[in-house]
Structures are given as C-alpha cells and as structure tokens.
Design a protein that fits this description.
heterodimer, A: about 475 residues, alpha/beta, 11-stranded mixed β-sheet, about 40% helix, B: about 100 residues, mainly alpha, two-stranded antiparallel sheet, about 30% helix
Chain lengths: ~475, ~100
Amino acid sequence: MSLAAQSLTALRRQLTAGEISARDIVEDSIAQISARDGDIGAFLSHDPESALAEAEKADLTLPLGGLPIGIKDNINVLGQPCTCGSKFLQGAYTSPYDATVITKLRAAGAIPFGRANLDEFAMGSSTENSALQITQNPAAPGHIPGGSSGGSAAAVAAQLIPATLGSDTGGSIRQPASHCGVVGLKPSYGRVSRYGLVAFGSSLDQIGPLTQNVEDAALLLNAISGEDPRDSTSLDASVPDFTEGLDAGVTGMKLGLPKEYFTDGIDAGVRERVETAAKKLESQGAEIVEISLPHTEYAIATYYIIAPAEASSNLSRFDGVRYGNRTENPADMLELYQNSREAGFGSEVKRRIILGTYVLSSGYYDAYYRQAQKVRTLIRQDFEKAFEKVDAIITPVAPEPAPKIGAAAGDPLKHYLADIFTISANLAGNCGISVPLEPLNGLPVGLQILGPQLGEQTILKVGRAVEG
Amino acid sequence: MADHSIDVRYVANLARINLSEDEIERFGTQLEGVMEHIAKLSEVDVEGIEATSHATSVSNRVRQDAPQPGITSEAFLQNAPDQGNGQLRVPKVVDA
C-alpha cells in the first residue's frame, strides 16, 4: 500500500518507529498526484519543493510530525496561492500570511501541502462551480465529488494524500465526504478559528478535517481547535483530547432519528443504509428514538437568505483595488469595481451576490433577512430541545448518492434543495460528522451524526462505532 | 399569485457588479424560482422570537492595546493590481 494511501495514525506509527521518513510520505504524495491527479482534478496546485524542504525539518515527536495535509484553496498558507476556485484571484494572489489553522498545523508538526479544488468561494455542492477545473469523484468517475470541499474529499478518497482540511458553511465538508466515501467533520461553530479562511457566510463557516477514518479526524481536530484572539467568534472552551475514549462504544447512548428527515424526497437505497446503520448502533447498545425537528421544512429558505446576505457583504472586498484581477483601463472607480467583478466572478457567485444584496436592500430587509434570523432561532431551539432527549442525532447526509456531473446544470434551486440534511447544523452552530456506510451500486453513502454545540467527542464515538 | 421577481439590473447596480443582458434575464428567471421557495418563510409565526445573528452567544472581547507583529505593507502590496510610492493606485476619484 502506498504511503499516501495510509491513515495518519498508521503513518505516525511507522514514522516514530523510524521505518519511514517524512520525506518518504511527501515524495509518495507528489508521485501519486503526478501519476493520477490529471484524471481526478483534486488539486489546483501543489508546491513539492517547499513541502520537501519542510519534510527535512519535520519534528517527529510532535502529534502530526512529518504528515502532509492537503488544504482547501480558500485557506491562506503563507507564500502559496489562494484562488478560492475563482478567476478573480487566479494568478493574482499569493497569501501574505498563514491562517490560524495552518499556524496550528505547523505547530503540531504537519506539512500543509497542495491546494484543493472547490466550488468558487465555496458556493456550491458539486465543485462544478469551480472556475478553474472539474473534479471527478474517485469512487465513480463521471459523478460529482460533492462540494464545496470536493477537491479535499477527492484527494483523500483517491489516496493522493492521507488527509485534508475543508470548510463547511452548509454541508461543504460532510456532503463531499459522503459522496466520496471518506470521513468529514464540521466542528461546532467557534471550535476552530476562521482567521485566514476566506469568508463566505461568517456566522456559518467552520474549518474541519476530511480523513480516511474517525481516529484521524479526531487527531486533526486536536491540532486545529481552540480559542484565537484573531477570531472573536472562536470559543473560549477547553479542548479535550478528541482521540481519547473513541472506542468507548455507544452503550446507553440515546440516538435520535428526526421524523422530518425521512420523507419522500430521499432515495430508497440511502434510507435503507441509514436505517441499517441505526440497527447496528442499536445492536451495540444504543437506544434509537424518534425525535422531531419541526422547523426542518424552513431550513433551506432560511439558509438561502442568510448565507447569500453574508456572502454579498463579505465579497464586497473583491473590488479590484487591493488584490486580485483588475479590469484594464477603467474610466473611473465605479467602472473599476463593476467591470472587475463582472470578469472575476462566475455565475453562481454573481447569483448569490444578487440574492444577498436583494434581501438586505431597503424595503425587503425585515421581510426576508430579519424574518430568516428569527426562524433561525426556532431551528436552533428545535435542536436544543432534541438534545435534551438524545445524545446525538443520526440522519442521511444527502438525499441521494453523487449525481452525474452536469445533472443539475442551470437549476440552482435543485442544488439548494439537496442541502436539506446538512444546513441546519450550520444555522444552529452544532457539530456534525459524515462516516461512510456500505456503497450503493458503487456509489459511496455517508451517515451523518449530529451533536450539540461542543459535542464533538460524542459524535466521534458514534462515528467510530459505525465504522468499527 | 404573489410576484417573486427581482429587478436584477437595479440590484446589480447596488452590488457594484456589471451583468450581461443574458445574465440579467437568466438570473431573473432562476432567482424567481428561489424566491418562490423562500416566500414560505412568511408563514412562520415569529411573534416574540428573538433574531439569531450568531448561533453561539458572542460578545465583544477586548485585548490589551499593545503593538503586535502583523502583515507588512510590502507583503500586502505584493498582491496589489497597481501601486506607487508604497500605496495602492486607483483611477482619479475626486475632480481637481
């Protein structure tokens, strides 16, 4: 088995035993990318030279010493490009700083390596909105890898690199993890610093790991969690060792199945897989109970007001003045802004800027944005009530396995509706993980385990029980 | 039936973004469908419900007002589309 195909935990054992070197792992990852990523398209770029130089200096006594980690191309790494999958930044931006998660990865000995493809500015759920390249689903070529962290999920699934970081605003870690057959964890809002993550929906965004197994996700979460003075929304909560007690099992745990999630809109095969996983957990000692999240039907409408509103505001910084591609010979400032933004942004980004600007505009703010913020409270309360009764909630990740590339082209609403099972966790600030189940006709299917705010230890334990 | 159309041309101007005629028409149709879905929010009774802007309760945090290393102007300007004298250069904003 190639080194890039092994888990962080397995590699770590061999590194500390002196059987392999950090350079061996990085060299193998470089070789895998150059041999196979031409067909997959997981990475937008990678810098072998700097990774090899870092491998030489790696401190193997550290928790992630000498392990290369792929990075979604919307997270700043000093001296590397950060395109966000957009023509606006392609060839026109080199990060002048490390995001806090990168500083933390380095402090844990890891080597940030490779820039993973994504839907432009993380807006999408198929990675088809990347303005730079298409990413194939390694498990099923011709199918989408999911998104927006499609490159991060595909890189792990294709065994190009042992693990990656992605970001999740409405499911963008969990859904591609599910579609590609890897583990993807969205931490609770505030668990991980957002400093250096290019902002999309600031009240929803979180960075998290995509890995081959649950233990690796816990290991990476250990490294990236914690309060950060540079992100005032990061939580001042103690960070446990997430790898501890992973094998404690689910005996005595109460797990909820939300009745609103098992409706006609869900593929029969996906439903069967999730129900089988629930039975498996029951046989391991968990109690499965039906719960209700009554405001589920309003989650998509709420999300598609709040996320575009925040995006339209966040993306105003891309004006062609300070960084990125500027239109040539603008007559005045207005033309500089308008033409740079027209040329730099793709359709989905423009659409969401229009939608977000509209719902924030005078005369509509109360009817849409304010109303959505209030319904968001009700959605959050649904979860608070549910978590009084259960330790975690189990659901599908997506209504169906990965569709074919191009299947929903030109129909944004169809894409949006498929986010139903994942977006509520972002609205409520909860944590969630996707763990692979048995594939359906070769297409991966994930189980989503949702936990309360700061409930990562619980969902990791349940995830481990599912995979075990 | 309620009108869910968006005046895309007007909103694009607010957002400082040029759109082609084709985009104005296409986005108009697509967003009408999205707004139709979004309109169902109005049926929710939110009487007495507080708005959530962040899922966790965030409050202002202050730190000591002490200088710390940050990104230098040279590092920042490496990404500038146009610059001069250590500043960003833009078209003339104010008439002389």
